[in-house]
Amino acid sequence: MTDPTPVEPTPEAAAPEPAPAAAAPEPAPAAPAPVAAAPDPAPAAPSTTWTPPASVSAAVGSRPTGITILAILAGIGGVLGLLAGFAVLFAGTVLFGGIGALLGIAALAYAALLVSFAFGAWTLKPWAWALGVAVAAFGIILSVVYILGGESIASQFVGIIIDGAILYYLNQPGIKAVFGRA
C-alpha cells in the first residue's frame, strides 16, 4: 500500500542554495600605541668596580671550595684509617701483644679525629677549625717523630708539606671567618 498523498518538495531541496559571496577580509586590529618612557633624570655613569650577581651574593656564608676538598679528603682518609686501625688493632695484638693493641687504638683515634673534622668542615661547625688545626699540627709532629725514629726525610717530606699547607690555609682570615673565628 502506498500513500495517495503527493509528495511536495521541501524548500531546501527544491532550490539549490546560492554559493556564499566571497566575504571581504576583515581589517587587522590596530596595534596599541607605544607608551613613551619617562626620560632618565641622570644617566648612570659606567661602574669601575665589579659586583657579584645576586646568586653569588646570596651564597656568602657557604662552604668554600678548599674546605669542601679538605672535608672530602679527611673523610676518605678517616674511613681508610678506621679500616687500617682495626687491622692493626687485631693483627697487632696477636703479633705484638700490648704494643700492637696500643698502636691500633692510636690509629683508630686519629682516624676518628679525621672523620670528625670531615663532618665539622662539611657542615662548617665552629669547632672544626680548631680540630683541623690540631690534626694538621699532629700530622707534622708525627712526621718529625718518624724522621727521628729512623724514617727517611724524603718519605715524610710530602706529609709535612701537605699538613703545613693545611695549617696555612686554615689560618687565612677568610677561612677563619667562615668558621666564626674572625
Q: What distinguishing features does this structure have?
A:
7 helices, mainly alpha, 182 residues
Strand content: under 5%
Low-confidence stretches: 54-60
Count of individual beta strands: 0
Sheet/helix structural class: mainly alpha
Please compute the radius of gyration using only Cα atoms: 41 Å
Shape: elongated
Helix content: 55-70%
Query: Element order, helices and strands?
Result: HHHHHHH
Word description of this protein:
The chain has a domain at 64-178. The protein has helices spanning 11-14, 54-58, 65-96, 98-122, 126-148, 153-170, 173-178. Helix 3 (65-96) packs antiparallel against helix 4, helix 4 packs antiparallel against helix 5 (126-148) and helix 5 packs antiparallel against helix 6 (153-170). The protein is an all-alpha fold. The model is unreliable at 54-60 (pLDDT under 50). It has 7 helices and no strands.
Q: Can I get a quick summary?
A:
Helix content is 62%, strand content 0%.
Topology:
Elements: H1 11-14, H2 54-58, H3 65-96, H4 98-122, H5 126-148, H6 153-170, H7 173-178
Helix pairs in contact: 3-4, 4-5, 5-6
